[in-house]
Amino acid sequence: MSSPLFWRVLMAIDRGFIALTGKLEVSGDIPPELLGKPLLLASNHIGNLDPMVLIAACHRIGVTPRFMLAGGLLDAPVLGPILKACGHLRVDRRSANVGEAMHRAVEALRKGGDPIAVYPEGKITLDPGMWPERGKTGVARMALGGGIPVVPISQWGAHEAVYWGNLSVGGWRDLLPYLTSWLSAVRRRPTFKVHFGKPVELSDLSGETMGDARRAHERIMRAITEGLVPLRLDEPDLPRFHDPTRPTTGSSPWRPA
């Protein structure tokens, strides 16, 4: 299944925006034998610019991802129809139809075509050191339920371009943290690092076996964290960049010893 033309146009705009904002460094790759087949791309979540950086990085290695997005985004008056037209998938994490959304995603993946990008944490990490938070087993359940490979992706640097900001936007003043931080990034040109790791080994696990979804989730999160370590060797504890709007109320069970 080829990507909608509109989505490809937006991806081209995205690449220009990321090039304007900072410098993109991509390492690793996706094995050729997985291209064009059902595939999940599981990434850590460190900032609001993550998806745009990931889109640009995927283009660098010849991949066009779709995303699993919260229902609120797809219901937005203007943004929602655009995202739907681009082929992105819906998931309402707190509703009773999460299982149905996961089933739809598996069916979409089985039809082949573009991989689906997901954030197992479900939100931007609030761990003080910006290591991945615990996350949930949805990605693992999709992988095991559909026999779908998972490629772990580790990102670093996107948090320096756009502030965490506000929980909600009620007026133009609420947009100022995003705008001022982005304009500062254009001057500073931070480096956005994205690493595509080796597919996570899940062949010994089953969606029918109790506890295997949790085990698969742990392997995915540890693989993401392992890939993150070399991207931030000079920032092993706390990030150098300070975002005054970002809470530090979370915790990471995957933080390296």
Automatic annotation (TrEMBL):
GO terms for biological process: phosphatidic acid biosynthetic process. Residues 235-257 are annotated as: Disordered. Keywords: Acyltransferase, Transferase. GO terms for molecular function: 1-acylglycerol-3-phosphate O-acyltransferase activity. Residues 235-245 have a biased composition (Basic and acidic residues). Residues 246-257 have a biased composition (Polar residues). It comes from the Bacteria. InterPro entries: Plipid/glycerol_acylTrfase (IPR002123). GO terms for cellular component: plasma membrane. Residues 39-158 form the Phospholipid/glycerol acyltransferase domain. PANTHER family: 1-ACYL-SN-GLYCEROL-3-PHOSPHATE ACYLTRANSFERASE (PTHR10434). This is 1-acyl-sn-glycerol-3-phosphate acyltransferases. It comes from Lentzea xinjiangensis.
